[in-house]
Q: What sequence folds into this?
């Protein structure tokens, strides 16, 4: 099945991407927009 073939290559792609970051070939772009600050009281409040 195609799903198995697509899944099969995923770990290899992730390994290559991690190597690119480790060797300095790849860098993250700056964020387009900042996320709001984490507010623990808001997230832990009962809904």
A:
């Amino acid at each position: 099945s195609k799903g198995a073939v697509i899944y099969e290559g995923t770990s290899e792609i992730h390994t290559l991407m991690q190597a690119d970051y480790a060797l300095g070939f790849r860098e993250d772009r700056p964020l387009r927009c900042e996320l709001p600050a984490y507010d623990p009281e808001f997230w832990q409040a009962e809904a």
